[in-house]
């Protein structure tokens, strides 16, 4: 029989190792109990402040760090780059109460290496009694544990720790210069979306860009503001029936589907509260299917890092409508779930590393010739 570790859990074996950094004793104890009951994780240490979290990252090199933003002394946002410096392949799951301030900080953290965020309920009873929160916490923890985190700080840094594969040419798949760029992303997506849009640069003025990023409702408006600030291009959540115009980036509102419609000869946003598609709302498949129906070969699809298979069905619809679809390659993806599913379904026109996606799209839009 295995002996219990000092933390009270079974030795790790094949389980993913976890460090919990939170200033609340109650939260640390609750998360530790959930990890033990799940049978999937091994808790190696806890921390009540950011300085201790950094030290534990260096000592234990955990698979996952659960990191609160609000901690005394060195807070979570300050500790994050030091954690990733000490243990570059540790996946960081932010677990914090998401007020307006923390939402902005969490998004910034996700562009600097944090992989996902889970919103802690405001009250202690909500924290301890919510089965939905427990399920979401364990699901996201599992996703982060499976991910292949790539070190790197800012979303626009060009230094990476791997040699990207040569991109597959789009030439044989593109019949017309696209006027619409439709993007789907999930885990790891905020950093990837920002990087691609930054690299496309002023060619975005010639595109109408529509993005479905799997995010809770509280995040998407702030994500749009962040994108606008980084890229220098207008970005916002559209309203239902809004005419979609070139030179603007439209972000799907969290918790609602964003599709595309054609009204009175104009392409418009279609916001809906229909049931989740492949467990997602907003869903990439909704956007891609509508783009295939109303845009055809004028669209260019892009599937970036994320868990699951959302976007595969829609990618097939885009291809049948004459549009090209780019999938991010496995090596540069945080999680090669969504793009990998598109590739396995043989619906990817090209499989391209993150570093090369923006330049390829920029070249296509500006010169009519993809790289």
Automatic annotation (TrEMBL):
Keywords: Chemotaxis, Cytoplasm, Hydrolase, Methyltransferase, Phosphoprotein, Transferase. Belongs to the CheB family. Involved in chemotaxis. Part of a chemotaxis signal transduction system that modulates chemotaxis in response to various stimuli. Catalyzes the demethylation of specific methylglutamate residues introduced into the chemoreceptors (methyl-accepting chemotaxis proteins or MCP) by CheR. Also mediates the irreversible deamidation of specific glutamine residues to glutamic acid. GO terms for molecular function: methyltransferase activity; protein-glutamate methylesterase activity. Its main location: cytoplasm. It catalyses: [protein]-L-glutamate 5-O-methyl ester + H2O = L-glutamyl-[protein] + methanol + H(+); L-glutaminyl-[protein] + H2O = L-glutamyl-[protein] + NH4(+). The active site is at residues 186, 214, 310. Its EC number is 3.1.1.61, 3.5.1.44. Residues 17-135 form the Response regulatory domain. Pfam families: CheB_methylest, Response_reg. The keyword Transmembrane helix does not apply. Phosphorylated by CheA. Phosphorylation of the N-terminal regulatory domain activates the methylesterase activity. The modification 4-aspartylphosphate is found at residue 68. GO terms for biological process: methylation. Residues 174-368 form the CheB-type methylesterase domain. It comes from the Bacteria. This is Protein-glutamate methylesterase/protein-glutamine glutaminase.
């Amino acid at each position: 029989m295995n002996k219990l570790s000092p933390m009270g859990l079974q030795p790790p074996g094949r389980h993913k190792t976890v460090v919990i950094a939170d200033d609340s004793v109650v939260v640390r104890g609750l998360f530790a109990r959930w990890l033990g009951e799940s049978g999937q994780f091994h808790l190696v240490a806890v921390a009540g402040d950011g300085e201790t979290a950094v030290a534990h990252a260096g000592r234990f090199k955990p698979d996952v760090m659960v990191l609160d933003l609000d901690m005394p002394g060195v807070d979570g946002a300050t500790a994050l780059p030091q954690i990733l410096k000490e243990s570059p392949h540790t996946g960081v799951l932010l677990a914090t109460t998401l007020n307006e301030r923390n939402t902005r900080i969490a998004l910034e953290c996700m562009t600097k290496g944090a992989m996902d965020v889970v919103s802690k309920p405001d009250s202690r009873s909500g924290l301890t009694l919510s089965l939905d929160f427990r399920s979401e916490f364990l699901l996201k923890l599992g996703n982060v544990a499976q991910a292949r985190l790539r070190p790197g700080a800012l979303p626009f840094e060009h230094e990476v720790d791997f040699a990207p594969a040569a991109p597959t040419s789009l030439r044989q798949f593109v019949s017309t210069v696209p006027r619409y760029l439709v993007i789907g992303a999930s885990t790891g997506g905020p950093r990837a979306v920002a990087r691609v849009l930054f690299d496309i640069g002023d060619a975005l003025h010639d595109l109408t860009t529509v993005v479905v990023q799997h995010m809770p409702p509280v995040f998407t408006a702030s994500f749009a503001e962040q994108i606008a600030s980084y890229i220098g291009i207008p970005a916002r959540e559209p309203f239902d029936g809004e005419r979609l115009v070139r030179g603007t980036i439209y972000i799907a509102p969290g918790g609602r589907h964003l599709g595309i419609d054609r009204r009175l000869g104009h392409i418009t946003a279609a916001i809906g509260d229909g049931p989740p598609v492949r467990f997602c709302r907003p869903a990439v498949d909704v956007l891609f299917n509508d783009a295939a129906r109303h845009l055809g070969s004028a669209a260019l699809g892009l599937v970036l890092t994320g868990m699951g298979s959302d976007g595969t069905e829609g990618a097939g619809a885009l291809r049948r409508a004459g549009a090209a679809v780019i999938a991010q390659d496995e090596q540069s993806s945080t999680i090669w779930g969504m793009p990998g599913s598109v590739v396995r379904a043989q619906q990817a026109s090209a499989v391209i590393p993150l570093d090369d996606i923006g330049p390829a799209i920029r070249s296509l839009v500006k010169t009519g010739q993809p790289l």
